[in-house]
Amino acid sequence: MPLALYALAIGGFAIGLTEFVIMGLLPEVAADFAVSETAAGYFISGYALSVALGAIVLTAALTRVDRKKALLGLMILFIIGNLLSALAPDYTSMMIGRIVAALCHGAFFGIGAVVASQLVAPTKKAAAISIMFAGLTIANVMGVPLGTLLGQAAGWRSTFWAITIMGVLSFAAIALLVPARIGADVARHPDGLRGEFRIFRNPQVWLSIGITVLGYGGMFGGFTYIAFTLTEVSGFAAASVPWLLMVFGAGLFVGNILGGRAADKNLGLTLLVLLGGLSAVLAVFALTAGNQTMTIVSLLLMGGLGFATVPGLQMRVMAHAEQAPTLASAANIAAFNGGNAFGAWIGGLTLAAGLGFTAPLWAGAVVTVAGLVVLLVAVFAPGGEFRRRARVSAGTGTTTTPVLLPSH
């Protein structure tokens, strides 16, 4: 694979770290700012909502900018946001830092997914996207546990100082490795930005976004308050949380790679199997969270099945919006993070209602089942995978494969 993909993965690592490490540090952050667990959880949902906003607004603003320059500018915004978080004197200042850092997230992955798909052969597009998103998974395997350990040992602010430094390193990697004009030949609508927004007239684009919000949001809803589930229900010591997060991160990494390969072969069936499996795992986790062995197994499977959906979900929306793949890609990144916010909100409601620390897992299972139902509607609807052979593409190259029947 081209080295430029790994530069994008480094950026994904830095962004993934700032998005996810806060979960392992929620108890410390809540205590420092003297707020409840639910209020601390708003650092997660607030970040996710800002990602959704930035994905559309910044992508639209950068639609005519050279892709490399756009990615570098977004990384500068990321660095500023994390610096603000590291220096935050109070809850409001911390939220502002989280919002600023989040604004670059959606546009970076939206533009980066299209760039990644242009660097490889048409039959490897989902696999290329999975490499870029591998940065997120490595952040969970290594970065989040280590960042949590650092935050517990030296204060949570030290973690955000480390993330700021990672942002600088990511900027340098993109500057050195990403070609200057890559993605310039990506298809754009002849009527400009207004024409590109016409992709939202396609019901399949909205169905894809809905699947992403619900399918990924279900997993995130179960995971947002996982530190409390592990300590209060499973009986693990707080010092064990970083290592347990590493198990979850290992699932993310393996699931992302395997999910990308599977999506290149059979997109629709891959998503159906993964969402069904994720729903079942969340329910089993809720039932067996009091058993430490089952908790470890469930963490691994939840991460694996949850993130295995990401390359396929991204490819699906791009396949149904070939005239504006960058905007569609960014919109789906917004959907991922809208799902994050929705899942965190639902999980927070269950906790506030006094339903216990397994309640977010049950809520996540229900939300994921809803995503599976929307997927079933989509594949049987006009233009869906069951009705036609989907063109799995983004930009200039295409590949045609059966997406519900086994590929040959």
From TrEMBL:
Transmembrane parts of this sequence: 42-63, 70-89, 95-115, 127-148, 160-184, 205-228, 234-255, 267-287, 293-313, 334-355, 361-381
PANTHER family in alphabetical order: CHLORAMPHENICOL EFFLUX PUMP RV0191, PURINE EFFLUX PUMP PBUE
Residue span, Major facilitator superfamily (MFS) profile domain: 4-383
Main location: membrane
CDD domains to which the protein is assigned, alphabetical: MFS_NepI_like
Subcellular location: Cell membrane
Membrane topology: Multi-pass membrane protein
Alphabetically ordered keywords of this record: Cell membrane, Membrane, Transmembrane, Transmembrane helix
SUPFAM superfamilies in alphabetical order: MFS general substrate transporter
GO cellular component, as recorded: plasma membrane
UniProt GO MF annotations: transmembrane transporter activity
Pfam families given in the database record: MFS_1
Keyword Ion transport: no
Protein's UniProt keywords contain Membrane: yes
Highest taxon of the lineage: Bacteria
The name this protein goes by in its record: MFS transporter
Organism whose genome encodes this protein: Microterricola viridarii
